[in-house]
Structure formats: structure tokens, C-alpha cells
Amino acid sequence: MNVPTPAIAPSLSRRSAIRLAAAAALATVGLVATAGCSSDEDTAATVDTLTTHLRRARKDADMAAALIAILPERAGALSVIQSERGAHADSLAAEIDRVAGVADESTLPATPPTTTTAQNPPPSLEELMTSLSESGRSAADSARNESGYRAGLLGSISAACTVQSIVVLA
User: Fold this and answer.
1) Is 10 helix (H, G, I), strand (E, B) or coil?
2) Any idea what DSSP says for residue 168?
């Protein structure tokens, strides 16, 4: 049994199909452009937030390094903190570059080495613990305002700082 299938007449003319395809292409480009853009204010606020955490990470790493010389019996724990906070600083710097749109580190201006004429007194272990606690709380607060990778990065930093101040230095 051979049942004939009814022929379906095209409801779009060639001209209408071309117009529809062009409109769809323009709509897609518009959506991609809109979704990919963020305002300069959002980018600047994100960079400011990440830069604050970058400075904290470097400060904590420097404090741990200074304490290694003073407290050699705690050198193992302090080395772990110095290393982890240094890794946090590297991750934050990479994210800042990504958010700010820096394509290659070779295009960045060279940062002159900082020299201080007055020596700061070495920090105490309690100061490092306090700084780590503050860094952890600050990163947790910032993570709540972020999404995606940045939220995960800041949440991870918060957890690490909390563990360092409560467990590693205890």
C-alpha cells in the first residue's frame, strides 16, 4: 500500500528566509556582545577587591618569612603559610590580569623594586594569626559578592587562611 504524502507548500519565500536568517544572526551577535560586556565600573570594583586580597596575601607571606628567621622551631609551619599565601598572591594576580584584560605579562610595565630605609620591627606570631584571620574573613565576605571562578578562588583563600590561623599555627 502506497499512501501518497501531501506536499507541504513552503510558507516562506526566499526573500523572507534571508531576512529571517539575517535577523537571527544580528540578534545572536547582539546577545553575545551584551553578555560579554561588563561595565567599566564593575571591572574596576572587581580589580580593586582582588587587589586588596593580593596585598593581604603578600603581606601574610612576608610576615611568615620574617617569622621563620625569628622562630626556627616553627619554620615548617611558617614555610607552609609563606608558600600557600604566595600561591594565593599568584592566583589573584593572574585573575586581576584576566579581569583587567591584560593579554601578556610582557606588556606590563616593570615594577620597580621597593626599598625601605627604616626597618620595621619583626611581626609576632599573634600578629600573623590575626592577619590570617582577617584575611580569611575578608575573602569570605568578598566571595559572597562574586560568582563563578572568583567566588571559588576567594572561598578557597578564606578556608586556607582560617585553617592556617587556627590549625597550622596552633
Assistant:
1) coil
2) I
Burial class (CB in 10 A: 0-12, 13-18, 19+), 51: middle
Mean pLDDT value of segment 89-96: 94
Round to whole Å and give the CA distance between 137 and 30: 40
DSSP 13: -
**Tens-place pLDDT, residues 111-151:** 444 444 456 788 999 999 999 999 999 999 999 988 889 99
- Residue 107 carries which side chain, given as an amino acid letter? T
Q: Which residues contact 49 (CB under 8 A, 6 or more apart)?
A: 142, 145, 146
Q: How far apart are CA 22 and CA 141, in angstroms?
A: 46
For 52-66, 78-92, 105-119, 125-139, which range has the lowest pLDDT when averaged over its residues? 105-119
* CB-CB contact of 42 with 145 (8 Å): no
Helix, strand, coil shares of the chain as percentages rounded to 5? 75, 0, 25
Judged by average pLDDT, the poorest of 62-76, 102-116, 126-140 is 102-116
DSSP string covering 23-69: HHHHHHHHHHHHHH---HHHHHHHHHHHHHHHHHHHHHHHHHHHHHH
